[in-house]
Amino acid sequence: DIEVDDYISPVQNLLYRLTGDTNLVHVDPDYAQKMGFETSFMQGLCSFGFSCRNLIAQLIPGQPERMSRMAAQMTSVLFPDTPVAVRIWRIEEGKVYFRFINKMTGRAVLDRGVFEY
């Protein structure tokens, strides 16, 4: 029903680290490669936050306190410097399903999402 485009900046993983994340796989490309990834990648909670911000802006703008529940399944890794989109399907009054998509690959980063307000 709704699709919202957004963009993960090239330094978003570094900015998110200011919240207290200490996992080197998110900021050190060499360490990430040792752990089997091509480079450092986004924190899952940051992807969740991007989705939440877009859902609030579309469904309950300026009223984040109305959100009552949000859940999703993480299904793929997301790298900084990536265009993304949140796809939203209205299910019933106050409830939507959503998917957070990597627009470069078409793959869901977050899938089977539900947002209630």
Summarize the structure.
By secondary structure, this protein is an alpha+beta fold.
What would your notes on this structure say?
By secondary structure, the chain is an alpha+beta fold. 23% of the residues lie in helices and 35% in strands. The chain is built from three helices and five strands. The chain has helices at residues 12-16, 29-34, 44-59; strands spanning 2-8, 69-74, 82-92, 95-102, 108-116. Strands 1-3-4-5-2 form a five-stranded antiparallel beta sheet, with helices on one face. The longest helix has 16 residues, at 44-59. The two termini are 17 Å apart.
Number of DSSP-assigned strands: 5
Largest β sheet strand count, sense and barrel closure: 5 strands, antiparallel
**SSE class:** alpha+beta
Poorly predicted runs of 5 or more residues: none
Strand content: 35-45%
Order of helices and strands: EHHHEEEE
Gyration radius, rounded:
15 Å
**Spatial gap, N to C terminus:** 17 Å
Please, what is the average pLDDT?
96
Shape: elongated
Percentage of residues assigned to helices: 10-25%
Strand order of the largest sheet: 1-3-4-5-2
Continuous helix count: 3
